[in-house]
Design goal:
- By secondary structure, this protein is mainly beta.
- About 15% of the residues lie in helices and about 35% in strands.
- It is built from 11 helices and 45 strands.
- It has a 10-stranded mixed β-sheet, sandwiched between helices.
- Strand 28 and strand 29 form a beta hairpin.
- The radius of gyration is 26 Å and the shape is globular.
Amino acid sequence: MNRYTFRARCAGWVVAWLLVSGAALGQGQKPITLDDWLRAGVFRAGYGQSFAWMANDNYYTTLEAGALKKNPILSKEAVTELVAAGAVKDPATGEAIELGEYVFSPDETQVLFLTESEPIYRHSARHVAYLYNTKTQTTQRIFDGKPVENLYFSPNGARVGFTHGNNLYVQDAATGKVAQLTQDGAAGNIINGSTDWVYEEEFGFPEGYYFSPDGNRVAYYRFDESEVPLFTMNYFAGLYPEPYTFKYPKAGERNSTVQLFVHDLQKGTRVQVQVPADPEQYFPAVRWTPSGDQLAVLRMNRHQNQLEVLLADPTTGATRPLLTESSDTYIELMGNVTERLTNLQFLSDGKHFVYLSESSGNAHLYRYDMSGKLLNAITAGAWDVTSLYGIDEASGTVYYQSAEAGPLERHVYAVGLDGKKKQLLTPGAGTHDAEFSSGYRYFVHTHSSAQTPPVIRLRDASGKEIRTLETNESLQERLKKYSYVAPSFFKVMGPSGDSLNAWMVRPPDFTAQRRYPVLMYVYGGPGSQTVTNSWALGGQAQWAQVLASKGYIVVSVDGRGTGARGVKFKKCTYRQLGKYEVEDQIAAAKYLATLPYVDGARIGIWGWSYGGYMTLNCLMKGAQVFKTGVSVAPVTNWRFYDTIYTERYLRTPQENPEGYDENSPITHVSKLEDNFLLVHGTGDDNVHYQNSLMLVEALVQANKQFEVFFYPNKNHGIYGGNTRYHLYTQLTAFIEANL
């Protein structure tokens, strides 16, 4: 790998190039085509077998050839077959079920197998589930084979919890007897044990119930969404459209009223957690403390700039504050890998907890005692912690991922709870991720870079390699036949004086003596990144290779508002989404136009979702800069999007109407001068088809010509059957015709 630095001055910017091999990696000259990518799967990377750690972390399980197997880490003993192929049979029909997604009971004598899975929204799905006992080799249906959601074992393995019809149930693992814990669930009104649409989408979890550590209590959410406005989409299949109606709170509208309850499974009683029943607040996480004598509740105000950690008594429901954090903008709910959007993790000593916060200006870990007193910072510096993997309390070691080596990189570290003896566990440039065993003695290490497909290794807690699980050598061999070009990383000085990270993919036969058209790819949403040193030969990055083989340069730039660069850079877009991010994309395009090998009259831009919104604003505010654009599933005015996401960054439309309208593409349709293709799925439950229809109406009234294509019944991802192939064929043809 060659590295060199080149500095150029143009249009008042200093631009630093940090090129990381812009040459073709493939030895052959076969161009990369849509058929190779979308139909043949030529460039699909392997991520190892279906790996899952066991409670005894000397072992892990894999699903191979229809059998569930137990694999040793270090010893010479043979692989054990826990569940043979065909062993799990439907007790009603006697037919063997195909093994797929599985969940172990805590003692690992029972396994839940989830079949016939049907997606609902982004994180939720319905399943027909079976409970298999490995000792007796018997199978029972969950809920008599009816589709259920959110299945979990209780920590003692005695029960399986699930939701059905907006109510919460538990099934006795020994007898199969089902107990219905709630009675008032009703579609469009009351949800028990699950979350509503906006919680699932924006807080990232569909499950809304939690067993206590002893398995004898269940804490659960109850959503009253009766006052939330309805949104209706039509599905087009038969003679008449079939309406689908669900509760979707758009910015400034009424949210669900949320209550929290604790149900005692032994006594059959319940208590309500004493927090106000107020739609102007959120509860983004509920967790039991390790002893089970307290329930931790995270509460945020509607502006999401104040967060409280409350401790509730599960016998009375009484609460007391443990920690409060405030911000002038918003509080980011950052990731604990095992518990999703939980900014804190309690220690089993009952005396301490670890909290992840951006209060210093960067995301860092802190240790507190149970009175809420700060004891020490665990991490510190001008860089962000990006994931908390967990805490080995026996050794007092915290395992986390961070961008300490730079926003393009991710590495895995270990550090003491006292903030001392920090150790880098994953040396080498690129993106590193880890999945630790239950006892933190081992971790599965996934590493990739812009030049290297994922390599997956098993390591011990010190970082020492034990074995390689996946090399992706076959993918690297396939690549040799093609003219794959690794992205080159560079920096552009933006109009604010910030140095912006970027990558460029150039044609495999690139020569500085020619002038090439450029297509910019943008996402740009708060905290996001498209520019990282990671393997991305899939999705949008794969399409970049297809276009490069056709003679286009493809570029992506992370402007202001994007992640892993601290609070100041990320949160400068607060209350005015679409202003600074767009200015940075326009400035980058102007810089690219000055390069001797770029045809400045042929610069285009495209994006999906937030990137579609960015594309529209760039085409309109930067009409003299961009020749063409493609916007897929865009937000066209944030008034049309949901409460939690939108108000976090803009507040409500009633409080900040200028922030919604001044940077709405609908406001600027009169400025459009470019070739433009608009694409949307009519079944998009996330960014509604309404966004594009309202833009179309505004463009028509402004007498602007454009192209538009809608995919019937397709959701925000626009896939299914031949859909993706058709979509990218259409996008490619449009770019070739108009750029």
